């Protein structure tokens, strides 16, 4: 398979490790979280946009008083430190710097966008992603969110899934306006598709 098709597994593994860090902020879990984030970076740069989900889960841990603000900072800074450590080890072993790859990517993308970018792409990207995700799933997402808002979106129980939906939408918009991808949208954004279902599952259970 193409490397892009592996990214959902790596992303979900990294988010699972983040949740383990929140459950038990031990150094071993934070170490694994940072290195798994670097492994994700090696496969694909775009899933780093899903950092908003990391902020969401850490913010929720503070809001629900599961973790204090200092503990959340410890988890975030520790994960970032081990991510940087992974980058340094990779640099020492291979001589390659991931940051240079990112700089080259941004430069090439800027040149490409200057010549070929039109506003139509922003709408086409969203349309392609919706078709790949499934029209039924998209209708369910919009319907569940509408039901959520109608029935008190910001109550203590419903606020969590509403906030999750907002994070999902912001991540989708960020990927779109970056202009990195102009075709094969669903293959390149497949990692984001798997993030839709944690919202739908609890919503269907609650509506039912």
Quick tags:
208 residues; mainly alpha; flat; 11 helices
- Strand content bin: under 5%
What's the mean pLDDT score? Answer: 79
Shape verdict: flat
Fraction of residues in helices?
over 70%
Distance between the termini: 38 Å
- Note the main sheet: none
The helix tally amounts to 11
| Strand tally | 0
Poorly predicted runs of 5 or more residues: none
* Rg, nearest Å: 18 Å
Structural class: mainly alpha
**What pattern of helices and strands is seen along the backbone?**
HHHHHHHHHHH
Q: What's the quick description here?
A:
The chain contains eleven helices and no strands. With 208 residues, it is mainly α.
Structural overview:
With 208 residues, the chain is mostly helical. It is 78% helix and 0% strand. The chain has helices at residues 7-23, 27-43, 51-63, 69-94, 98-116, 120-133, 135-150, 158-178, 185-188, 190-193, 197-207. α6 (120-133) crosses α7. The relative contact order is 0.13. The mean pLDDT is 79.
List the helices and strands and how they pair.
Layout: H1 7-23, H2 27-43, H3 51-63, H4 69-94, H5 98-116, H6 120-133, H7 135-150, H8 158-178, H9 185-188, H10 190-193, H11 197-207
């Amino acid at each position: 398979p193409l490397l892009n098709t592996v990214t959902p597994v790596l992303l979900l593994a990294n988010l699972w490790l983040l949740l383990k860090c929140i459950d038990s902020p031990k150094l071993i879990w934070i170490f694994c979280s940072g290195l798994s984030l670097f492994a994700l970076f090696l496969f694909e740069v775009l899933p780093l946009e899903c950092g908003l989900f990391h902020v969401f889960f850490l913010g929720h841990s503070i809001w629900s008083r599961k973790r204090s603000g200092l503990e959340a900072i410890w988890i975030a800074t520790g994960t970032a430190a081990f991510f940087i450590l992974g980058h340094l080890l990779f640099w020492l072993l291979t001589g390659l710097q991931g940051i240079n790859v990112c700089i080259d990517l941004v430069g090439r993308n800027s040149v490409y966008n200057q010549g070929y970018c039109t506003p139509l792409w922003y709408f086409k990207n969203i349309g392609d992603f919706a078709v790949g995700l499934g029209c039924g799933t998209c209708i369910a997402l919009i319907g569940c969110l509408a039901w959520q808002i109608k029935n008190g979106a910001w109550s203590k129980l419903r606020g969590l899934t509403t906030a999750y939906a907002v994070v999902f939408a912001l991540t989708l918009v960020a990927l779109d306006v970056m202009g990195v991808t102009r075709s094969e949208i669903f293959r390149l954004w497949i990692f984001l598709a798997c993030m839709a279902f944690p919202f739908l599952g609890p919503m269907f259970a609650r509506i039912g």
